[in-house]
Specification:
mainly alpha
Length: about 70
């Protein structure tokens, strides 16, 4: 998984699943539909993920995750 180095930072499987999909470039609506979650839940998990990884946007998250693949 792209998030492997970071999975220990996430307290829930749900947040890890949201973060993984954000890292794949999916938007909140698509993630909510795929995981059968409310959009507000996904948005909250997104903000918590950004805070935990010290990023401020999905673009920064994707850059961080892709820089760690090597």
């Amino acid at each position: 998984s792209t998030l492997f180095p970071y999975t220990t930072l996430f307290r829930s499987n749900q947040r890890c699943a949201v973060a993984l999909r954000l890292g794949q470039g999916l938007d909140v609506s698509a993630i909510a539909d795929e995981l059968c979650l409310a959009r507000s839940t996904v948005a909250t998990q997104r903000q918590k993920t950004y805070g935990k990884l010290d990023v401020h946007s999905q673009r920064e998250l994707i850059a961080l995750l892709t820089s760690r693949r090597g």
